[in-house]
Design brief:
This protein is about 75% helix and about 0% strand. The chain contains 10 helices and no strands. The chain has helices at about 10-40, 50-60, 65-70, 75-95, 100-130, 140-150, 160-185, 190-225, 240-250, 260-285. The longest helix is centred in the C-terminal third of the chain and has 35 residues, at about 190-225. It is globular and about 60 Å long.
């Protein structure tokens, strides 16, 4: 059956493919995410470079990396499932039969907004555990302590910053994928298609990272800070926090952790797209007509 005549796969298939891709990307690149967070939480002039930070983490902490690593898979599942949902929705509303550049950006931004509402508690727990000064026993301990001190809404600290981070990353990522795919020569083999997916996903990952890193720095600062009763937090809302960091630490501080972040999410974005598309292809073959 022609590609444009295939029945769209159900939501659960896209959700599962995103989760599988997320696990693949995390197992390959996760240590760089820890390095990125440590560098972003460091105020003032950076004391350690990427290599020094990574060496220290591996040497001193080791197994502490595992619990927050497990929190990453649900984020990737939501990312690709919501992108599929919004893509179908906007194409139906616009009457387009194929995805356009404008719709791909709108779809990506909407998927990022959706993802942000789901992943905030996961992100909060991850940041708390990745902090070098963390004394939490594990993810469950973080949840218990935050709810005890701040109530259930404490798990949504940094919601607004997370919204902007995912809004811009997903818009850049999925919008760039559509653009790059159109520029690459059509694949004539399955291997060629996998290569095109990796290249377009890697470029999308780079662009998304370049756009959203300042928002990621703010999110890490907000979620990593300890709440003190009666004291207004230094970092609260995203855009005022951006101005505070720029004024006190200089514009370069808004890109703290950029190198480990882009080294993870550029090739990581390629791995995500490659594994998602490959997994969806496996699902189509398993389900048979009218999905193939």
């Amino acid at each position: 059956m022609a590609t444009d005549q295939r029945k769209p796969l159900p939501f659960v298939a896209n959700f599962a493919a995103g989760a599988i891709a997320g696990v693949s990307e995390i197992l390959t690149f996760y240590p760089l995410d820890v390095v990125k967070t440590r560098m972003q939480l460091e105020t003032g002039k950076a004391k350690h470079g990427m290599v020094g930070t990574l060496s220290s983490i591996v040497r001193e902490e080791g197994s502490r990396l595992v619990p927050p690593l497990l929190l990453e898979a649900p984020k990737r599942a939501v990312k690709f499932a919501s992108n599929d949902f919004w893509g179908k929705t906007y194409m139906g509303l616009s009457g387009e039969s194929k995805m356009t550049q404008e719709l791909s950006i709108l779809t990506g931004c909407s998927a990022g907004a959706t993802e942000s509402f789901v992943v905030v508690p996961f992100e909060l727990v991850k940041i708390k555990l990745q902090d070098k000064s963390s004394t939490f026993a594990g993810p469950i301990d973080v949840v218990k302590q935050v709810i005890k001190k701040e109530g259930p809404l404490g798990l949504y600290a940094g919601m607004e910053a997370t919204f902007w981070r995912h809004f811009w990353w997903n818009g850049g990522y999925f919008g760039c994928i559509h653009q790059v795919r159109g520029m690459l020569p059509p694949a004539e083999t399955q291997q060629g298609q996998l290569f095109n997916n990796f290249v377009s996903g890697s470029v999308g990952g780079f662009v998304g990272t370049a756009v959203n890193t300042p928002f990621d720095v703010v999110k890490s600062r907000i979620q990593g800070a300890a709440k003190v009763p009666g004291v207004a937090p230094k970092y609260n809302w995203t855009y005022p926090a951006l101005m505070t960091i720029m004024r006190e630490e200089g514009p370069a501080a808004l890109y703290k952790g950029f190198l480990p972040k882009v080294l993870r999410l550029a090739p990581g974005g390629g791995v995500l797209l490659l594994v998602v598309e490959f997994t969806l292809g496996v699902f189509r073959q398993a389900l048979g007509p009218p999905y193939i």
